[in-house]
Design brief:
alpha+beta
Length: 223
């Protein structure tokens, strides 16, 4: 077993709580949906693309995003629904770029399907925009080396894992998740950091993701 070096800086674990809040904005047509998506607060884009992941973390793969679901199930635009559902969220490191992809996908479809722009949803089935409000809280857990890290990782809540893997990368616009960033810069293990960074977290449940990260670190420690 390789000697476990103390990290330059300890890893402080955080967790988060979130509230969902109605914005009062709603769309009855694709045209209205497009115009609101262009300008709505980024926390709405985050909510409607990550809601299922936050609320139903045990599902893998995750269900389609809210936009895809509404377009398909309410408006009956199956082709556009498939395009929206196929957007690979993991490739986007900012809400801005994710928003631009959604806007471009809807706009391109409307350019070729003009009647879809004025097809109304049934009364009571409008798309209601909701924003996600997060509260980030410190925990009592701190890791000073990789052994500490996997010991803590094995017992922290899935809310903490969600924060460090998903929110840190996308909402806070970091290039990678907090775990990989710490392992790269404080532990100095580039190979391990890249292996964790290259995981597609959207294909795992949060418990599965926990196990995968622990497995990668344990394997690295034994090298």
């Amino acid at each position: 077993m390789a000697k476990i070096q103390k990290a330059k800086e300890p890893f402080k674990f955080y967790t988060r709580m979130h509230l969902s809040e109605l914005t009062g904005l709603r769309a009855s047509t694709l045209g209205q949906l497009l115009e609101i998506v262009k300008v709505v607060n980024g926390s709405c884009i985050y909510h409607h693309t990550h809601r299922f992941l936050q609320q139903h973390q045990y599902l893998s793969p995750e269900p389609p995003n809210d936009f895809a679901y509404w377009v398909t199930e309410v408006l009956g635009e199956d082709e556009l629904g498939e395009r929206l559902a196929s957007i690979d969220v993991v490739q986007f490191t900012t809400i801005r770029s994710l928003r631009e992809k959604i806007v471009a996908t809807i706009a391109a479809y409307l350019d070729k399907n003009l009647l879809a722009k004025v097809r109304f949803s049934r009364e009571g089935e409008e798309f209601h925009f909701i924003k996600s409000i997060s509260f980030v809280l410190p925990t009592n857990y701190v890791a000073y080396d990789l052994k500490d890290f996997i010991d803590v990782l094995d017992k922290i809540t899935i809310d903490s894992i969600y924060y460090h893997i998903f929110e840190a990368r996308l909402r806070l616009e970091k290039n990678t998740n907090d775990f990989s960033n710490w392992i790269m810069n404080s532990v100095g293990d580039e190979r391990m950091a890249r292996e964790i960074s290259h995981l597609d977290p959207y294909t795992f449940t949060l418990e599965g993701l926990r196990d995968k990260v622990i497995g990668i670190i344990k394997k690295g420690i034994l090298v």
